[in-house]
Give the backbone structure.
Amino acid sequence: MDKKLKEIVLDHSDAIVKMWLEEFETHKKDDYTSNISSEMFESTNREFVNVIFSSIENHGLSSDLDDFSERLINLGWPLSYLTDGMQVFRRVTTGFILQQSEQVDANTFSEVLREVDGWVDPIINQLINEYSGSWEHIVSLQRVALQELSAPLIPVMENITIMPLIGTIDTERAKLIMENLLDGVIKHNAEVVLIDITGVPVVDTMVAHHIIQAAEAVRLIGSRCILVGIRPEIAQTIVNLGIDLGKFPTKSSLRKGFETALELTNRRIEETYNKNEDIEKLIDSLDGE
């Protein structure tokens, strides 16, 4: 029966393609294809249905389906376009086979539906696997990129680096902060590290514990940490929680922390004498006379 039904479908592929294209054309109104030109949509539909027949004819061993789905993924076509197309193909093909049958009863309908499902379902599963693999790869790359941005260590001057922290700090991110701190201190030969928590919305016991651990680890390899960005509400929270941050300096702003870092590395900020400014003041005083 399987071979006979497949012969019917392949021998009348032109008629089935025509029916499929006519029904699937209504999907052009859907949101996921509304921005696609009619020419692109039509050509992609024809290629899609040809790929379906190629897969059925070759018992799912054709590489055309993989190539087609990979190209659509790269072009940004949604998975729903493919699954909708397969469901339309299921309906059209089942209906066409039943129209060709001399007698249609419950057994015939059940057998035809089972055979068509046997062609369609593996293709759908293959398409979903292709998209899932692509999504997992993209998510993996995005996760790596976010990790690199979530705890950056920035050298701002010889022996001085800054780690600006933004957003919530959980256990996984705290581990990344620790690793980046230790690696960065060695890489940049930093004597002082400024940990800026201005962008951290909440500092609770866990966050403070992670920061203390990171600062202590940095101290053990011969450098010092300065915690900056202590807002009044954060200071009050730290006091109420009884958290001891006395092991390393804390400053309310990055500027004050940087000045302290300069002092710890035997440097300081000095204002330069502006001779031009004094000349301008002298000219202004003469004009006033």
About this structure: The radius of gyration is 34 Å. The chain has a mean pLDDT of 79. The domain at 2-147 is CATH 1.10.490.10 (Globin-like). The first helix runs from residue 2 to 11.
